[in-house]
Write a structure and sequence with these properties.
It is a single chain. The chain is of the alpha+beta class. It has one domain: Ribonuclease Z/Hydroxyacylglutathione hydrolase-like (Metallo-beta-lactamase, Chain A, 4-Layer Sandwich). The protein is built from 8 helices and 17 strands. Helix 2 links the parallel strand 4 and strand 5. The radius of gyration is 19 Å and the shape is globular. It binds zinc ion. The site of zinc ion has 5 residues, from loops. Zinc ion (ZN) binds next to loops.
C-alpha cells in the first residue's frame, strides 16, 4: 500500500483485507493452474505455486488538492452479506488505515463507486454506538452513475413476483461443472433480491436520508481531472475512473479487470460477469490504447504490486509495476 503521484494529484491505496486463498478458485474458469503457470510474469506475486489467484479488497483515495475522493468502498464492517458470508460481519481497521494515510472520516468530500457489488459499497455507512447505520463520511456526497444504481435496484423483486420456478431451476443432477461454478457466483434471483435489499437498507439508505446521494449520467466529469469512464461488461453500467493532472493520466479499473491475468488474457471473463463478449471487446480496446503509454493503471483487486503500465506481451499484454512515491 502506498501513494502515487499523478500530476498534482496524490493517489493512495487503503487496504481493507486480503481475499482468502482458494475463495476465488473457479472465478475465472479458463484460468486453470496449468494454463496460469505458462504466464510466468504472474508468479509469484499474483498467483501462487499451486496456481491459485491472489487478490485483495482495497479503496483508493484521490486527493486533487481541493477535493478528496474515495473510489470504491470495500465491504465495510458488520454488514449482512448472506451471498458472501465470509465478507459479512467484518471488523477490519480500514478507517484507522485511512486515518494513518492522512484522511479522517470528515475529510472525504466525495465517494465514487465503480459498481454496486457488495465488495465495493460497504464503507458508505457504518454503525454508530447504538448500532444505527449512519454515513461513514459525514461530509461526503455519494456520486453514482444513475444506470448502475437503477440496475442495482432492479434486482429487488417483490415477494409476489418471486416465482418458485426461478429458484427451482438449474438444480438438476446433470448440471455441468461449468454451470455449477457459474451458479456459485450467480445466485438465484431470490437470494440476489434479498442481498440487494440488505445493501440498500444498511449501506445506501443512511446516505439517502442524509441527502447525500447524487446520480449522474455515464461518463460524467466529477471534478476537473476526475471522470467516470464507461466500461460495461462486469455489470451493464460498470464505470472505471480516469484521472488527469498536469499532463499525467491514470486509470482505476474497478472490476473491469479482476486480476492481472485478465491483462494477459483479456478474453478470460469471470463467472458472474454480465456480458463476457462485451467485456472482452472493451478490455481489448482499452489494453490496445494503453499499451506502451504512460497511463498508470490501478488494479482495484490487484495485490501488490498493484499499480503499473500496460505493455504488449506476445498475444496479450502484461503489467509493468511501478513503486509508489511513498510506501507504507
Ligand atoms: Zn469486486
Amino acid at each position: 500500500m502506498g501513494t502515487w503521484n499523478v500530476g498534482l494529484f496524490k493517489v493512495t491505496e487503503i487496504e481493507e483485507f486480503v481475499i482468502q486463498l482458494g475463495l476465488l478458485n473457479g472465478l475465472i474458469p479458463q484460468a486453470t493452474p496449468e494454463v496460469i503457470r505458462e504466464l510466468g510474469w504472474l508468479q509469484p506475486q499474483y498467483v501462487n505455486d499451486a496456481g491459485e489467484i491472489r487478490a485483495n479488497v482495497h479503496s483508493i483515495v484521490v486527493d486533487t488538492g481541493d477535493t478528496k475522493i474515495l473510489v470504491d468502498a470495500g465491504c465495510g464492517n458488520g454488514k449482512s452479506y448472506p451471498m458472501q458470508p465470509s465478507w459479512g460481519g467484518l471488523d477490519t481497521p480500514f478507517l484507522e488505515r485511512l486515518e494513518k494515510a492522512g484522511y479522517g472520516r470528515e475529510d472525504i468530500d466525495i465517494i465514487l463507486l465503480t459498481h454496486l457489488h457488495l465488495d465495493h459499497v460497504g464503507w458508505c455507512s457504518m454503525q454508530d454506538e447504538s448500532g444505527k447505520w449512519v454515513p461513514t463520511f459525514p461530509n461526503a456526497r455519494l456520486i453514482l452513475v444513475r444506470d448502475e444504481y437503477e440496475r442495482h435496484l432492479s434486482q429487488i423483486i417483490s415477494s409476489d413476483a418471486l416465482d418458485s420456478s426461478a429458484t427451482a431451476a438449474a438444480q438438476g443432477e446433470d448440471e455441468s461443472e461449468e454451470d455449477r461454478i457459474a451458479r456459485a457466483f450467480l445466485p438465484d434471483a431470490e437470494a440476489l433480491s434479498n442481498q440487494t435489499r440488505l445493501i440498500q437498507e444498511e449501506t445506501f439508505q443512511p446516505v439517502i436520508d442524509a441527502g447525500h446521494l447524487e446520480l449522474v449520467p455515464p461518463g460524467t466529469e466529477i471534478v476537473p481531472g476526475v471522470r467516470y469512464v464507461s466500461t460495461p461488461g462486469h455489470t451493464s453500467a460498470h464505470h472505471s475512473v480516469r484521472l488527469e493532472s498536469d499532463g499525467q493520466a491514470a486509470f482505476i479499473t474497478g472490476d473491469f479487470f479482476h486480476h492481472p491475468l485478465q491483462i494477459a488474457r483479456p478474453e478470460w471473463s469471470s463467472a458472474g460477469d454480465w456480458d463476457a463478449e462485451v467485456l472482452t471487446k472493451n478490455r481489448r480496446a482499452f489494453l490496445e490504447s494503453a499499451a506502451g503509454t504512460d497511463l498508470l493503471v490501478f488494479g482495484t483487486h490487484f495485490v501488490e504490486p498493484s499499480v503499473g503500465y500496460i505493455v504488449k506481451d506476445g498475444e496479450g499484454y502484461r503489467l509493468t509495476p511501478t513503486t509508489p512515491a511513498t510506501q507504507r
